[in-house]
Design a protein that fits this description.
- The chain has about 375 residues and is of the alpha+beta class.
- Among the domains are: about 1-120, no CATH class; about 245-375, Histidine kinase-like ATPase, C-terminal domain (Heat Shock Protein 90).
- The protein has helices at about 1-10, 15-30, 35-50, 60-75, 75-100, 105-120, 120-195, 200-230, 250-255, 275-295, 335-345; strands at about 265-270, 295, 300-310, 310-320, 320-325, 350-355, 360-370.
- Strands 1-3-4-7-6 form a five-stranded mixed beta sheet.
- A hairpin with a 5-residue loop joins strand 6 (about 350-355) and strand 7.
- The longest helix is centred in the middle third of the chain and has 76 residues, at about 120-195.
- The radius of gyration is 45 Å and the shape is rod-shaped.
- The model is unreliable at about 1-15, about 105-110 and about 370-375 (pLDDT under 50).
- It comes from Marisediminicola antarctica.
């Protein structure tokens, strides 16, 4: 009615006015194409084919291809192809509707429609819009996959960094435990011995105190070197020293023998292990002897046996003392045994602990002679 009234006043055809009103409506619908692509496609198809003469304006040539592109990119290509088929039916319905309207110049109108239908402009535009949308959708999918992969790599990198940090903390904790537990146990034993002989044997007391002082200094140096690894300051960087190995077992046994432990070391075979394996064997022997000093009651025989065979290195530490939960005023939390097991596991080795047939306690560690990844 508005179009007819405006046509009577201005002389402009009412059909043209109606088309001018529908163009901004179609444009407004396209604003929502990303969020409601299917609804927008239906709306612009109805506006371009039913509410206005089909193929008689630019709604079909512009709005519908844009809507099909949006359905392909933000919906699915399958829905877009079905949408194109549905649009074809709506277009045919609009052609039939407007061709049969009263007052329309049916012959000339049908001739114009036939001329436009011969051209493949609209179908080509619609198909091109869908194909272009599929290409863009594929690029978006590839980009999404790359972004997800990059995030996954970042998460794995962070996870590996956390694992490495935890592993390093565990290694430092084991080293600190071995240094502190061994040194303090020897210091306590030497202090007890010095106290017991203070009146009866001053020379033995002085010797025990000297060894106690040496043990304390050695422990301080070891701790300083270990903590220096954690420092970024160049002046605090530790001096490089060889890691303990098989050649240091004699001095280790001697330090325990100095506090009264009847310990003996025996070696069978030819050592050819890497420094890492030698350090592991040394630390296991150190922890085992420390546990004997802390928990074994009146042992009369402590043996450290190191056997090298073709396939493995075997360390056995046995004692015949009665095991006590408390000695020298200390109780264990099991960290030492866990540390020995973890050290051996790094080299695909195993550690067995428990009572043995000769009475007392036994620690047996078996490490492959050629570990796969430990070196």
């Amino acid at each position: 009615m508005f179009a007819r009234a405006y046509s009577l006043v201005t002389g402009v055809p009412g059909e043209t006015i109606w088309l001018l009103l529908l163009v901004p409506v179609s444009a407004a619908c396209l604003v929502f194409r990303r969020h409601r692509p299917v609804t927008v496609l239906i709306a612009v198809a109805v506006i371009g084919s039913v509410l206005s003469p089909p193929l008689g304006d630019t709604n079909d040539l512009v709005a519908v291809p844009i809507a099909l592109y949006a359905v392909t990119v933000y919906g699915t290509p399958r829905v877009a192809w079905f949408g194109l088929l549905g649009f074809a039916f709506i277009e045919l319905f609009g052609i039939q509707l407007w061709s049969s309207m009263p007052g329309a110049d049916g012959a000339s109108y049908r001739d114009a429609i036939a001329l436009i239908e011969i051209s493949a402009a609209l179908p080509m535009l619609c198909v091109s819009a869908i194909l272009t949308g599929m290409l863009v959708r594929g690029r978006h999918e590839q980009l999404r996959i790359l972004v997800d992969r990059a995030r996954q790599v970042a998460r794995e990198r962070d996870s590996q960094a956390q694992i490495a940090t935890l592993a390093e903390r565990s290694r430092i904790a084991r080293e600190m435990h071995d240094i502190v537990a061994h040194s303090l146990s020897v210091i306590v034993a030497l202090a007890d011995g010095a106290t017991a002989t203070a009146q009866s044997d001053p020379a033995a007391t002085k010797s025990a105190l000297d060894r106690l002082s040496d043990t304390g200094r050695t422990a301080m140096n070891d701790m300083r070197r270990l903590l220096g690894v954690l420092s970024d300051d160049e002046p605090l960087a530790p001096k490089l020293h060889p890691t303990p190995g098989y050649t240091d077992l004699d001095s280790l046994v001697e330090s325990f023998r100095a506090v009264g432990m009847p310990v003996r070391l025996s070696t069978t075979g030819m050592p050819t292990d890497s420094p890492a394996v030698q350090l592991t064997v040394y630390r296991i022997a150190q922890e085992s002897l420390t546990n004997v000093l802390r928990y074994a009651v009146a042992p009369t025989r402590v043996e450290v046996a190191l056997v090298f065979i073709d396939s493995e290195t075997i360390l056995t530490v046995t004692n015949d003392g009665q095991r006590s939960a408390l000695r020298h005023g200390s109780s264990g939390a099991g960290r030492g045994i866990i540390g020995m097991i973890e050290r051996a596991a790094v080299h695909d080795g195993i550690v067995e602990t428990g009572p043995w047939s000769g009475g007392g306690w036994r620690v047996r560690a078996s490490l492959p002679r050629e570990p796969q990844e430990a070196r």
